[in-house]
Amino acid sequence: MAAFRERGFLTIGAAKTNRIIFPVNVKMSIRDFASRLRTRCPSVRLVAVGGRRYYVYRYEGKLNDGVEGIVLMAYPKALSASRKPSAHFYAWTAAKARETS
Questions:
Q1: DSSP designation for 23
Q2: Cβ distance 85 to 78 under 8 Å?
Q3: How many Å apart are CA 92 and CA 17, to the nearest integer?
Q4: Residue 30 falls within a domain, yes or no?
Q5: Which residues pair with 20 in a beta bridge?
Q6: What is the pLDDT of residues 71-90, one digit of tens each?
Q7: Is 71 a domain residue?
Q8: Residue-wise DSSP of 43-72
Q9: Nearest to residue 91, comparing CAs of 10, 13, 12, 15?
């Protein structure tokens, strides 16, 4: 962990669905953005983990606290036909620490 912090990175952690991101410079919550994702979008990937399949989307860009970060959004494939993805999805963030002057 020390080497990770020395390079200026924060730890990876769960993100709240009301966290603000700025896809295409438009301010919206992760929840709202996830509800607009479509499984046929080329940026949404289907991955398998331990026999289960998940749709995954990787957002890289500005977060609401002014840092650049990465948000991974994933939801089980089984939910894609029956419910909106935003109802049951997982999000994690990793952000580079701010430079101090």
A1: G
A2: no
A3: 10
A4: yes
A5: 29
A6: 888 888 876 555 555 445 56
A7: yes
A8: T-EEEEETTEEEEEEEEEEEBTTS-EEEEE
A9: 15
CA 15 vs. chain centroid, Å, equals 8
* Residues 96, 82: Cα–Cα separation, whole Å: 36
Q: 101 in a domain, yes or no?
A: no
- CA-based radius of gyration for the chain: 15
How many independent structural domains does the chain possess? 1
Question: What gap in Å lies between CA 19 and CA 71, rounded to an integer?
Answer: 10
* Residue 100 counted as domain residue: no
What pTM was estimated for this model as a whole?
0.69
Give the whole-number percent of the chain exceeding pLDDT 70.
65
Residue-number span of the structural domain to which 91 is assigned? 2-95
Instruction: Name the residue with tokens 């894609």.
Output: 80
